[in-house]
Amino acid sequence: MKCPYCGDEESKVIDSRPTEDSERIRRRRECLNCHMRFTTYEVVETVPLIVIKKDNSREPFDRQKLLNAMLRACAKRPVSYEALERAVSSIEQTLMSTYDREVTSVRIGELTMQELKKIDEVAYVRFASVYQQFADVESFFNELKKLMGDRKK
């Protein structure tokens, strides 16, 4: 495993344990060259999931890309990294549980908004404003009204 700090390929495993969902194994490693520690995750290799983008181009599903988008939406919000990891795992599990190996970016966006709505409403609105590309203040306000209506229920 290549060290993210110095690039050396020699490291030792210090700790190994399954994640909460038991889908991956989390390993703490120490670089034998610079002695810095880092975490890696081991996952079962599956048939790749292909994302069909809005312009009909296709690319492999990237878990990290989804996590980064959610991190941006949650910037300066009281949301833990672990909560976002669980949400991404939930989205990934939902996508993998279907028989289709191709999924639209629209579907991923909808699932992401559902998860963010549960975690943090401000992050949800931030993500929705970028994802749904609100044309004007009125469409943004309508989304806020829907959110407030859901909150009352």
From TrEMBL:
Biased composition (Basic and acidic residues): 9-21
Zinc fingers (unnamed) by residue: 3-34
PROSITE patterns tied to this protein: ATP_CONE (PS51161)
Keyword DNA-binding tagged: yes
Pfam annotation, one family: Zn_ribbon_NrdR
Residue ranges occupied by any ATP-cone domain in the UniProt entry: 49-139
Known cofactor(s): Zn(2+)
InterPro entries: ATP-cone_dom, NrdR-like_N, RNR_NrdR-like
Cofactor binding, per record: Binds 1 zinc ion.
Region (Disordered): 1-21
This protein's record includes keyword Transcription: yes
Protein keywords: ATP-binding, DNA-binding, Metal-binding, Nucleotide-binding, Repressor, Transcription, Transcription regulation, Zinc, Zinc-finger
Family classification: Belongs to the NrdR family.
Classification via NCBIfam families: transcriptional regulator NrdR
Function: Negatively regulates transcription of bacterial ribonucleotide reductase nrd genes and operons by binding to NrdR-boxes.
Protein name (database record): Transcriptional repressor NrdR
Source organism: Faecalibacterium butyricigenerans
Gene of this entry: nrdR
